[in-house]
Structures are given as structure tokens and as C-alpha cells.
Amino acid sequence: xxxxxxxxxxxxxxxxxxxxxxxxxxxxxxxxxxxxxxxxxxxxxxxxxxxxxxxxxxxxxxxxxxxxx
Length: 69
Description:
Blueprint: H1 2-6, H2 11-22, H3 28-31, H4 35-41, H5 50-68
């Protein structure tokens, strides 16, 4: 997980990679911690929660669209 985070993957993308490539459907039952908790302990957690960051990006795209049309 640390390697994937250092490569620039988001916590949700790390979960998808672990599921699809390594056959780990859920991290929490295996480690007892969520992906974000593990990243936070290693100083790799995003400054803004991923869901909030996605909402901000979506709002910016919507604003740009409304300005164009």
C-alpha cells in the first residue's frame, strides 16, 4: 500500500488495485485498519479527504461548464 501511495494512487485506487491484482477484497479485515489509516500512519494520507476533493473538482468542472454555455 505504501508503494502504491508513493506512486500517486488515491486510497480508492489502491483498494481497486489490491482487489483486482492481488486478490485482497477488503483491507480492514486483514490488517484491522483502513487504507487511509495506514497511509496516515506513514505520512502519506491526502491533505483533503478523497470524497471532498472529488466534490471540489466536480464543482470546478460544473462552474467552467456554466461559464462556457
